[in-house]
Amino acid sequence: MADTWLVIGLGNPGPRYERTRHNVGQMVVDDLASGRGEAWKQHKAGARVVETWLRPGGPKLVLAKSNGFMNTSGGPASALAKFYSVAPDHVIVVHDELDIPFDALKLKTGGGHGGHNGIRDIAKALDTPDFARVRVGIGRPPGRQDPADWVLGEFSATERKTLPILVSDAAEAVELIVSEGLTAAQQKVHAPR
């Protein structure tokens, strides 16, 4: 189906990780699903999915969260793309980004993985880096804190106050990419607020 989009929210499984910075991608697809009153279902690709629509009549959205860890996101992403016949140019990956300040979003297609193991694994599994990315800024850790500890930590009390708005903005960015294309979405999302 040419008008089907696969939207993958990156994160790690289980309650231990659900509120961490690394799971902000899953928070965004949760927002897209709950906003449509949809519940997650297990899929044989090793992921949970929601099949829904951008708006009544199309385009179709397949929201997905891998059942495995971040660095093994490629297998489920590739299997879902095959199952739903979605080409890489209709795949959107939502993920946390250290190099973007907290509460900011950047959209792009292609490019490197910037050390993000989930993106690296998906690019390898899809055999191309040319898929859309909604990069949700989590900022760099303060002082000498290890970035690995930072991404697996929960958002601070101050961050949690604006996190729902950031998640909602990222969900809206996904919808803009699907409805208007990446360039138009970038112009709206990257414009100064």
UniProtKB/TrEMBL annotation:
Gene3D superfamilies in the cross-refs: Peptidyl-tRNA hydrolase
Positions annotated to bind tRNA: Y17, F69, N71, N117
Molecular-function annotations in GO: peptidyl-tRNA hydrolase activity; tRNA binding
EC assignment: 3.1.1.29
Alphabetized InterPro entries for the sequence: Pept_tRNA_hydro, Pept_tRNA_hydro_CS, Pept_tRNA_hydro_sf
Site feature location: Discriminates between blocked and unblocked aminoacyl-tRNA: N12
PROSITE patterns linked: PEPT_TRNA_HYDROL_1, PEPT_TRNA_HYDROL_2
Pfam families: Pept_tRNA_hydro
Keyword tags: Cytoplasm, Hydrolase, RNA-binding, tRNA-binding
Record has RNA-binding as a keyword: yes
GO CC annotations on file: cytoplasm
Keyword Nucleus included in the entry's annotation: no
UniProt enzyme class: hydrolase
Subcellular location: Cytoplasm
SUPFAM superfamilies hit by this protein: Peptidyl-tRNA hydrolase-like
Catalytic site positions: H22 (proton acceptor)
Source species, domain of life: Bacteria
PANTHER family listed in its UniProt record: PEPTIDYL-TRNA HYDROLASE
Assembly behavior: Monomer.
Role, per record: Catalyzes the release of premature peptidyl moieties from peptidyl-tRNA molecules trapped in stalled 50S ribosomal subunits, and thus maintains levels of free tRNAs and 50S ribosomes.
Family label: Belongs to the PTH family.
Protein name (Swiss-Prot/TrEMBL): Peptidyl-tRNA hydrolase
Record lineage: Bacteria, Bacillati, Actinomycetota, Actinomycetes, Micrococcales
